[in-house]
Amino acid sequence: MVATTLPSNDFRVIIVGGGISGLVTALAASRFGIRVDLYERNTSIKELGAGVAIGPNAAALLEKLSVGEVLDSISSRPVDRVNLIYRHHDTGEVGYTGKLNTAKRSFYCHRADFVRTIASCLPSDQIHLGKSLKSISQDPHSVTAFFEDGTSVTASALIGADGIRSKVRQTWNQEKPIFSGQIVVRSLVKMAALPQDVQNYCKHGNVWVAPGKKHIVAYPIQRGKTVCAGAIIPAFGGKEWEESWKARDDEIDMANFMSAIEEFHTDPKTMFQLGESTSIFGLYEREPITSWRNGRILLIGDAAHAMLPHQGQGGSQAVEDAYVLGVLLAAASNSHTPGLNITNWFDVFEQIRKPRAEQIAIESRAMGQAFDDLQLSAEGVDFLRKSYSWVFITEALDECEDQMKKSFGPNSVEWENLQKILETSPCREWTEDLSTWVSNPSQQMNI
């Protein structure tokens, strides 16, 4: 067994999982002056899947982490402030257009492009590949991760960012993800391959809403060169599909799939017929657990709060987790005994993030049901408008400050440390901008 340890007075944090939540946490921590080491089971940084939508609540935080410009180079931004256009499934006619307050606070990109870009912003010696987690042990002073290759690493804290089937979570919670009964079939198609009239409106994100628990989403990625189309439909073939993007064209019964979306307008069906890469996976979620923390171990992202994709908030909530955790790790590292009181900081994180993330998971489930029950009726449109408005207006840093006051007191050393960090970091400007924005209804979202 090859073990890695640090002197007892060092504050060290390790992350298990190299997806969106793990990489952005490593980035956020580094921006606040904290080194973390990330351990990924694959031999390269990659993300299976297709597109990912990053909402304005998360995109603004990524910009404050100084990666906005580099993400612009791989992404598609909303045009004319349009967030999503909701269409009737059979005629393709527009039923509702949701608009953002600004075109600069959300984007669409390929998941693989996103994770590679974030990874490129980190020092290579902080990312450790081919490290499949075997087990974890902890004592009052440290936590140790053991890997299948016989190595181990000991640290002050361990962040479980290893997805919906988290091995970290399984060390104290063995409940399995719950299959929703629906699957997603996603296809990537070159924009230039589509008819010109379809290209014209595919510069925006579009949703075709149908009864029978079916809808199709399509949005541009890779600076408008590619369209990512996703059909959410009831599972076919009598199969409970895995929560995995590994199934490819030769494993998908395309004739059966096209029959399942037969009632949809020609345009979205054409996207799947012309698609160059198609993947399929099952939709799963998890019931909330009592705590995301177990001693010195903390869950984030899908490992903590896996949700259905009907609000497109899975990636965004991972980013919110990462940003808040980066701030708190920086505050913890500046305390007199950072390694000893890390559990207190994890409790603060959970008090900030757990209510919001779990409520968004509930809203996402309700959104899927509303698509089926209400579709684009007046009541359905009103539901869309109200559901998105509170999700997109994030107050992550305000919530962080409020909870710090409650947990440690406004005159505590911990509170003073947090103030120093915020005053010397980009997030201070964002918090002030947000306070002005939220207090001014004329600047808020028209959705």
Automatic annotation (TrEMBL):
All residue ranges annotated as the FAD-binding domain in the record: 11-360
Domain of life: Eukaryota
Pfam family name, one: FAD_binding_3
Signal peptide: none
InterPro entries for the chain: FAD-bd, FAD-dep_Monooxygenase_BioMet, FAD/NAD-bd_sf
Transmembrane segments: 12-34
Cofactor(s) the record lists: FAD
GO molecular function: FAD binding; monooxygenase activity
Keywords on record: FAD, Flavoprotein, Membrane, Monooxygenase, Oxidoreductase, Transmembrane, Transmembrane helix
Gene3D superfamilies: FAD/NAD(P)-binding domain (3.50.50.60)
Family to which this protein belongs: Belongs to the paxM FAD-dependent monooxygenase family.
Name used for this protein in its record: Putative salicylate 1-monooxygenase protein
